[in-house]
Design a protein that fits this description.
- The longest helix is centred in the last third of the chain and has 18 residues.
- This protein has one domain: Aldolase class I (TIM Barrel, Alpha-Beta Barrel), CATH 3.20.20.
- Helix content is 42%, strand content 15%.
- The protein binds 2-phosphoglycolic acid (PGA).
Length: 257
């Protein structure tokens, strides 16, 4: 499948880190290091309370604003939740859906992932859908089964023409925040599998255009090797996205690819 047509995408997932002042500083530092043009797409997925101050820092730059979750309803009695349209109206471009931490700690299911994806797309957001197996699942040889199921259910009733607004992040749960990166071969293997599943659900050309990220302890040192794999089009970066020089190295590795 043709890699040349896929623009690499590096997204930082700041998780529940960075108070407003730190967030603004980090965004400013990133912008200064990266400059305003990069050969890859860059997204900063920040806590809800940082969205406006980060937006101000990255205005006019190549960094797109991202959030880490949204609710599936347009409005209503959902205390503590944020609707996709609320994110869109303050300039959010991307939202992460189905992160394993949401699945693990907040009762996210394949069904709620699908509902959130639909709501985000309807609000005009682009979506980074996370999939990935746990260590036990990998050890029981269930990786393909789990990832295939998560993917098919997340994409249920998503139309062909909406797929251009979707990025898939393969994040093996055992590699997140643990320092245990999947080897480039392991990561490529599952990313190629994901492309194959999407080709089956839709069609080959659509799958060839789909961008697939790897996430899980990606850092300034291992990024180049991971990003050189034919089916890995970017990264979803947690820990290393909190350090501007490290994140910048990853962006450079993706840009050089
Ligand atoms: P990590 O997190 O880079 O710290 O492993 C990645 C993620 O959870 O998206």
């Amino acid at each position: 499948m043709d890699r040349l047509n896929r623009m690499p995408i590096i997204a930082g997932n700041w998780k529940m880190n960075m108070k407003r002042e730190q967030a603004a500083e980090l965004a400013k530092a990133l912008r200064e290091l990266m400059g305003d043009t990069t050969a890859c797409e860059v997204v900063a997925c920040v806590p809800f309370t940082d969205l406006d101050c980060v937006a101000a820092e990255i205005k006019g730059s190549n960094i797109a604003l991202g959030a880490q979750n949204c609710h599936w309803a347009e409005s209503g009695a959902f205390t503590g939740e944020i609707a996709a349209s609320m994110l869109a109206e303050i300039g959010v471009k991307y939202v992460i859906i189905g992160h394993s931490e949401r699945r693990q700690y907040f009762g996210e299911t394949d069904e709620t992932v699908n509902a959130r994806v639909k709501a985000a797309l309807a609000a005009g957001l682009k979506v980074i859908i996370c999939v990935g197996e746990t260590l036990e699942e990998r050890e029981e040889d269930l990786t393909y089964e789990v990832v295939g199921r998560q993917l098919a259910e997340a994409l249920d009733q998503i139309e062909d023409d909406q797929m251009a607004n979707i990025v898939i992040a393969y994040e093996p749960v055992w590699a997140i925040g643990t320092g245990k990166t999947a080897t480039a071969e392991q990561a490529e293997d599952v990313c190629a599998f994901i492309r194959g599943v999407v080709a089956g659900l839709y069609y080959v050309e659509l799958a060839a255009a789909l961008r697939i990220q790897y996430g899980g302890s990606m850092n300034a040192k291992n990024a180049a090797e991971l990003l050189s794999q034919p089916d890995i089009d970017g990264g979803l970066i947690g820990g290393a996205s909190l350090k501007a020089p490290d994140f910048n190295e990853i962006v450079k590795a993706a840009s050089a690819d």
